[in-house]
Amino acid sequence: MGSLTDEEQADERAGADARRRDEVDDLITAWRSQRPDLDVEPLQVLSRVSRLARHLDIARRGAFAAHGLESWEFDVLSALRRAGPPFQLTPGALLRATLVTSGTMTNRIDRLTDSGLVYREPDPRDRRGVLVTLSDRGRDVVDSAFTDLLDREQALLARLGPAERQALSALLRTLLIPFDEGGASAAKLCGSRRGGGLVGPRHRLLHHAPQLAEWLSGTCRASPPCPGSGTASSPQRSTRSCADRPSPQMA
Question: What is the pTM of this model?
Answer without folding.
Answer: 0.67
